[in-house]
Design a protein that fits this description.
Elements (H helix, E strand, L loop, with lengths): L3 E5 L2 E5 L7 H8 L7 E5 L5 H4 L2 H6 L5 E5 L3 H5 L12 H8 L16 E3 L4 E2 L5 E5 L8 E5 L4 E3 L4 E4 L1 E4 L8 H14 L3 E3 L6 E2 L2 H12 L1
Parallel strand pairs: 2-3, 3-4, 4-5, 9-12
Antiparallel strand pairs: 1-2, 6-7, 7-8, 8-9, 10-11, 12-13
Length: 216
């Protein structure tokens, strides 16, 4: 599980916060960052392995603002449950009937979280543009950093053992997630950073278009 640190003039912006476990705080300390240095957290989506660490981070001393895609906002605020997996897949139907693995489902509400929407431009590290990429979750977003030729793509794709779209049983809408892969391909980043697995470089757009077409 990868999180990202964006160091700006006003402090640290964290992209995703991991599980409700101590790992994030230890990783920040190794970078010389204290929780109070984190001024904002941008979430690619509201799943517990991306938003679960928010409560620990705040208890450790940050009063950072938290922002998440609009369709995941109610989940992060504690007003809606986690979305079901796409019932069109057999594993998705099974996953919907099972309890979450221990530790994974812990997500304390963040009532003051606010929404990100398509095209929002954030004045950070040369500019961060919000790109709606629903499918893995209803409100999944990617972050495009044109000045750095970088997209932070969250869970739209996994790069564990091989590069592939997010597994269908982990998606709320499998066809939408494939469209999200194509959306990221259209951005043609030099580097695609993903939450699960290593970053992708070298003909990112071509590789993503091929994956989307094969899966479709």
């Amino acid at each position: 599980m990868n999180c990202w640190v964006l160091q700006g003039d006003d402090g640290v912006t964290l992209v995703d916060a991991g599980l409700a476990a101590p790992g994030l705080e230890r990783a920040l300390r190794r970078l010389g960052i204290a929780p109070r240095d984190v001024v904002r957290v941008l979430l690619t989506h509201g799943h517990p392995d991306h938003a679960g660490g928010l409560a620990r981070l705040r208890r450790a001393g940050t009063d950072s603002e938290v922002r998440v895609g609009a369709a995941d906002l109610a989940t992060v605020q504690g007003e809606a449950p986690q979305p079901d997996s796409d019932p069109s897949t057999r594993l998705g139907r099974l996953f919907n009937r099972l309890p979450p693995p221990p530790g994974f489902g812990e997500l304390e509400p963040t009532p003051d979280a606010t929404a990100l929407t398509e095209g929002d431009e954030l004045d950070l590290v040369g500019g961060v543009r919000v790109v709606e990429t629903p499918g893995h979750s209803p409100g999944h977003v990617a972050f495009h950093l044109p000045a750095h030729d970088l997209v932070i793509g969250g869970d739209a794709l996994f790069n564990v053992f091989s590069l592939r779209p997010a597994p269908g049983f982990l998606c709320s809408d499998v066809p939408a997630n494939l469209r999200a892969v194509a959306t990221i391909a259209d951005l043609a980043p030099g580097t695609l950073a993903l939450a699960h697995g290593s970053a992708v470089t070298g003909d990112v757009a071509g590789r993503l278009r091929e994956l989307a077409s094969q899966a479709g």
